[in-house]
Amino acid sequence: MARAALTAGGKRGLILVSPPFLYALLLLAVPLATILLFSFWTQDYLDIDTRFTLANYVEAFNDPLYMQLLRRSLLIAGAVTLVTVVLAFPIAYFVSFHVAPGRKSLWLFLITIPFWTSYLIRVFLWKVILGYNGVLNSGLTGLGLIDEPLSVILYNANAVVITLAHAFAPFAILPIFVALEKIDRSLLEASMDLGETRATTFLRVTLPLAMPGVVAAVLIVFIPTIGDYVTPRLVGGPDGLMIANMIQTQFLKLNNAPMGATLAVLAMLSVTAVSLLFIWLNRRWLRGPK
Questions:
Q1: Most exposed among 50, 111, 121, 226, judged by the fewest C-beta atoms under 10 Å?
Q2: Residue-level pLDDT at 288
Q3: Is 28 a domain residue?
């Protein structure tokens, strides 16, 4: 009887798990496997040669343009992640520790307001703000702070970092806020009672306990940033283009899907390596010296 009941429970569990598993398989695993398979093929206009080859990877590593774009993408994604998380933490900390419980929902609501508008519209707005004769340059010139418009804030990597940092700010604030909300306030009081200052309490108690939210924010921002191609195309200029722009070019303009797939695989591997390294360093830091 017990075995029969266990078998029946297992079948019900499989029935419940099967739809989301198949959904994830069809929409995640199959596309990734297809991209990986394409990377080992070659294409001559409309003719795809399905024979296994490493020619695409050899070309990708030997062509300095591809490696330059990949390095630039990692640097821009890292800069966007650093700026976004560093600016998001004080906001999340303020909402969690200094806003009345009854008003926290209002603050979270205000933080999500940028999601109400199209991502494309927000990018175009930043293009207007950062333009040579845009809002920022016109305002600084009118105040007499600069003699001529700044040229370092549009059509370069700086513009990409600014625009993406604004776009992904809510994604960083929310997980950090959730982690801070889970901190037992009595631990902070105990730290103060034992003679720690506010600064040391923050560094030795608050920050380590909030690290799960920080790690989540870093991954949520870093991973999609490196694959963004709209923002670099609109505000990046020649010096702000990223690997995703080359992938788009390979697929849509050069009609070379295998090379585009190869660059996508290399980008995914790079993101995975950097993310795992960050997680490992974070765990070592939390464990402290042995």
A1: 121
A2: 62
A3: no
